[in-house]
Design a protein that fits this description.
The protein is mainly beta. It is 14% helix and 40% strand. It has helices at 6-12, 69-74, 242-249, 253-270, and strands at 2-5, 22-28, 33-39, 44-47, 62-66, 79-82, 93-100, 106-115, 118-124, 126-127, 132-134, 138-146, 152-159, 166-169, 178-183, 187-192, 198-203, 211-216, 222-223, 228-229, 234-239. The strands form seven sheets. Strands 10, 11, 12, 13 and 14 form a five-stranded antiparallel β-sheet that branches. The chain has a four-stranded antiparallel β-sheet with strand order 6-7-8-9. A three-stranded antiparallel β-sheet has the order 3-2-5, with no helix packed on it. A hairpin with a 5-residue loop joins strand 12 and strand 13. The longest helix is centred in the last third of the chain and has 18 residues, at 253-270.
């Protein structure tokens, strides 16, 4: 490591301002490695190198420059994930191939095997204007994903420019690591957490389309001691896709809860005429 005067960085790095916290992309030319650093705003900046960029006593040539949001996104390596919990209703693995800042910001995902015929999909995001930084974890970009109900769920992508990148899902003030991203045409599903792995669902389309629900008119009115009550309504429900049938057969409670919530939502909206319904994901939790 070496301490460099902020005044020297001002002469070397275009746009650098001494005293102003700044994110830097530092290239170590001898090894071809790059690492994201943060200048904390003091009179000096301490340059550190990863272990595989050089050895003790070696003189290294560095090339620092300002790190922009666009460069952070376009330089993101593939993020490889797998179904660590072995959930039968989710793909076995997925990979984020691209994080684009051009035009409509989005990330591209490949999943194996395909879910409901979908092997590759794109997710639109609303990235924050500025990058953040967490010591030990490197830089991060917060992104919002808008759902069918007009709400937004927060994610972060972390990367230090050198080691592997990873995604985190906001839960309160924390961002536990996401271990799988999948999409079935309606739900964007995120497996996250450790050692207990949970699943969060973000609805990108109307979940009512997943079910065929018909009202059963055979039940008559119920007589009470003082009055005649309105008839109880019952409904026949058919699951239209293999994904929901797989969720029904699993032993886990979360997919069962999702199916029940989605069916109740569909009945309330399409058969009872209740408007402005929001289907919440119980996995969100935590303080916001």
């Amino acid at each position: 490591m070496s301490f460099l005067p902020a005044s020297l960085l001002q002469t070397l790095v275009s746009g650098f301002r001494p005293g102003e916290k700044t994110l830097l992309n530092v290239s170590y030319l001898e090894s071809g490695k790059s690492v994201y650093h943060r200048y904390e705003g003091g009179s000096t900046w301490m340059a550190t190198a990863p272990n595989d960029a050089g050895h003790e006593g070696q003189n290294l040539t560095i090339l620092p420059k300002l790190l922009t949001r666009g460069e952070f996104m376009t330089s993101m390596p593939d993020i490889i994930m797998k179904n660590e919990a072995g959930f039968s209703w989710l793909p076995s693995r997925s990979r984020i191939l691209d994080l684009s800042d051009a035009g409509n910001p989005h990330f591209e995902v490949e999943q194996v095997p395909a879910s409901e015929g979908i092997s590759r999909f794109s997710v639109s995001v609303q990235p924050s204007e500025k990058l953040g930084f967490v010591p030990g974890w490197g830089c991060h970009l917060e992104m919002g994903i808008g759902d069918f109900f007009g709400r937004s769920r927060k994610l972060r992508v972390y990367h230090d420019g050198h080691y592997e990148a990873w995604l985190g899902l906001r839960r309160g003030k924390r961002y536990p690591r996401i271990t799988l991203v999948s999409y079935d045409g309606v739900r964007l599903r995120l497996a996250y957490g450790s050692p207990e792995i949970r699943v969060a669902s973000i609805y990108l389309a109307d979940p009512a389309q997943l079910y065929s629900i018909e009202k059963d008119e055979r039940r008559g009115p119920i007589a009470s001691k003082n009055s005649l009550l309105a008839p109880l309504s019952t409904y026949k429900t058919r699951l239209r896709r293999e994904t929901e049938r797989e969720m029904l057969m699993t032993r886990y409670r979360y997919p069962h809860g999702r199916l029940g919530s989605e069916i109740a939502y569909s009945i309330a909206r399409n058969h009872m005429g209740i408007e402005d319904l929001i289907l919440n994901d119980p996995s969100e939790g935590g303080r916001t």
